[in-house]
Design goal:
Length: 369
């Protein structure tokens, strides 16, 4: 099989990704070249595969790498049922993954609920739920996602359009623990053009999701397209032309530096959180329940970047969905308190300061009226 420079890069990226999360060669015997059958108790790595070029390229490369390491390699295909023929697409993707030698190959058919967040967000939530459930069921050590450098650049722009702060600039992390399942992205240094090349070189046919649209749809600006598709087909090409730079490369590299800084701040905030926040057990169903206690005196001496993260995490853990304005208002109770009243949060939650403690409360009586 031909090993082009792109395929060699992809193999190296997958190897490094697996090594970074502790997945290495299972036996010194496997130093010999060639594919090796893994033992039944070898670690299992799963690849989330949609049938598109990115995920099929990742599945193909990962199957090759795992075969040299003596690691089991499988795939999960989630059928959202949102486009005509999706069941057949899922089955075809499963067949290709089996052709790579992957085992197990699991097809999950899900019903995408309508939560009001939009079809794209609802589908993503349903997909992650299915991936997490499958990874836990099969005791996989990791789930690999096929996001590329292009996806990273799009995510940064989407983050800047939708929210504010360092988290938007950081884009997608290379590794993240979600509900006890380790997700990793080996291809963040590869472009979509390169994943296409991998598929073409290896003779792998792929499926293009019609909901992604293309530049022919009003120059990529059609409001019938998801926002990510408009960013992909219109905004990114326009900005690259305007600046005469490879904006995908620039944004993805910037995301790497921002992620490094974010990791440090998050770790610092996590340490402070454990020291200044506690969540009492629910003790009453007929009166306001204290969902979190924040030591305002201890938190007040921290940097605003740390305070904001601690507050946001405390509110999220308590179940009080909070915007940046809510976090800023609670932060004022910490760092600029002059006797102001309670901060009203969403879902019948509030935060008030009593002495040196901020209480995050849930008014169940109010909620049930």
């Amino acid at each position: 099989m031909a090993y082009t420079p792109t395929i060699r890069q992809a193999v190296g990226d997958v190897r490094r990704c697996l090594a970074d999360i502790g997945i290495t060669r299972q036996s010194s015997v496997l130093r010999e070249h060639g594919r090796h059958e893994p033992s039944p108790d070898a670690p299992l790595v799963l690849v989330a595969c949609s049938g598109g070029r990115d995920s099929l390229a990742l599945a193909s490369i990962t199957a090759t790498v795992c075969g040299t390491l003596g690691v089991r390699c499988g795939a999960v295909i989630v059928d959202h049922g949102l486009v005509a023929g999706s069941s057949a697409v899922a089955d075809e993707a499963a067949g290709r993954c089996r052709g790579f030698g992957m085992d197990p190959v699991i097809v999950r058919r899900v019903v995408v609920p309508s939560t009001g967040a939009g079809t794209e967000a609802d589908a993503r939530s349903a997909r992650y739920d299915a991936l997490i459930e499958t990874a836990i069921e099969y005791r996989a050590v990791a789930m690999l996602l096929a996001h590329t450098r292009d996806d990273q650049a799009e995510t940064v722009l989407l983050g800047l359009l939708r929210t504010v702060g360092l988290d938007a600039l950081a884009g997608m992390p290379r590794v993240i623990d979600r509900d006890g399942v380790l997700f990793a992205r080996p291809f963040l240094d590869l472009t979509r053009r390169q994943t296409t090349e991998i598929c073409e070189t290896r003779g792998v046919e792929w499926w293009d999701d019609p909901t992604n649209g293309d530049a022919a749809d009003e120059g990529g600006l059609s409001t019938d397209l998801p926002l990510r598709s408009r960013v992909r087909h219109a905004l990114l090409p326009y900005l690259s032309h305007l600046t005469d730079t490879d904006l995908v490369e620039h944004l993805s590299r910037s995301a790497g530096f921002a992620q490094r800084d974010k990791d440090y701040i998050d770790e610092r905030a996590r340490s402070v959180y454990e020291r200044v926040v506690n969540h009492p057990e629910d003790s009453s169903s007929n009166s306001p329940t204290v969902a979190a206690r924040i030591d305002a005196a201890a938190l007040g001496g921290e940097h605003p970047a740390i305070r904001g993260r601690v507050i946001a995490r405390a509110l999220a853990h308590a179940g009080a969905g909070a915007s940046s304005r809510h976090v800023d208002a609670v932060d004022a109770l910490v760092a600029n308190w002059h006797g102001q009243g309670a901060v009203r949060l969403s879902s019948a939650y509030s935060a008030c300061r009593q002495g040196h403690v901020i209480l995050v409360c849930h008014d169940r009586v109010h909620e049930n009226r």
